[in-house]
Write a structure and sequence with these properties.
Layout: E1 4-11, H1 18-28, E2 32-44, E3 47-53, H2 56-67, E4 74-77, H3 83-94, E5 100-103, H4 121-128, E6 134-135, H5 139-146, H6 153-164, E7 171-173, E8 185-188, E9 193-196, H7 209-222, H8 227-243
Helix pairs in contact: 1-7, 2-3, 3-4, 5-6, 7-8
């Protein structure tokens, strides 16, 4: 039987990021994807133009519907934009026996639209991070969470140590925007660092890569892989999805989540 994995995130009607990307990545990596919606965005490949956050009672009802019926041990979170959403999700997760919580700290869209309210950042750190088995910030998000500027791999290591102190069991800082060795990700478990050197693909079609990677990691964790192997498999998958990304619309096109299926 396929393992169920739940994603808790916002929607992207253009299909490249958000809960739509999560479900594609989960399916492509061999698990059964389920979803709880937190926010509805109006966005396309050029950016986000509007956002509506679902009421907390609706988010809670979605979570209750899943947890009261289906055993879930692996969850991936994406856009948790407000204090109220963070509190609702945090309380629901704390009441469950979650083995793997993969947290993608969605903060700002590629076009610059803020997806995590500034006043909610401290609550995100204190309520979500301590429950995380793994958190997957990019360089910009890692700067916000750690409070330091990141330009070198040494900075990445320093930031990872600070973020780990928030209570996360593992920190994976993605290096796609790192000038020094771009495409290199760094994993920290509180004791040791592990580098994942990757191919940096020069392309505009990278919409939703963070959602895709985190979801793929969650899928492989759910299937029983150790975290180091889960990240390696997910990074290889995401790299190929980027390599096969395609132009759609006028901005950042999507990756191809099902690149291995011949049209």
């Amino acid at each position: 039987m396929k393992k169920p994995v739940l994603t808790i995130a916002g929607s992207d009607p253009s299909g490249g990021a958000g809960i739509q990307a999560d479900l594609k990545a989960l399916s492509a990596n061999g698990v059964f994807g389920m979803s709880v919606l937190t926010s509805i965005t109006a966005q396309n490949t050029c950016g986000v133009s509007s956002v509506f956050h679902l009421p907390s009672d609706i988010i809670e009802a979605q979570l209750d519907a899943i947890f009261s019926d289906i055993p879930v041990t692996t969850i991936k979170t994406g856009m948790l934009a407000t204090l109220e959403i963070i509190s609702t999700v945090s309380k629901s997760l704390a009441a469950q026996n979650i083995e793997h919580l993969v947290v993608d700290p969605v903060m700002v869209a590629k076009g610059g639209h803020v997806l995590l309210e500034e006043k909610a950042i401290s609550s995100f750190k204190s309520e979500i991070c301590p429950q995380a088995f793994l958190i997957t910030p990019n360089i910009y998000e890692a700067e916000i969470l750690s409070g330091i500027t990141i330009t070198t791999l040494a900075d990445v290591r320093a930031a990872a140590k600070i973020i780990h102190q928030l209570g996360c069991r593992h920190v994976l800082i993605k290096g796609g925007h790192l000038q020094e060795q771009p495409g290199t990700d760094l994993l920290y478990d509180g004791r040791f660092f592990r580098m994942y050197k990757g191919e940096y693909i020069q392309t505009q079609n990278t919409h939703g890569t963070g959602c895709t990677l985190a979801s793929a990691i969650a899928a492989h964790l759910a299937k029983g892989k150790p975290i180091a192997d889960a990240i390696e498999a997910a990074k290889a998958y995401t790299t190929e999805a980027i390599r096969h990304g395609f132009t759609l619309g006028k901005g950042h096109g999507p990756t191809d989540h099902f690149y291995f299926i011949q049209a």
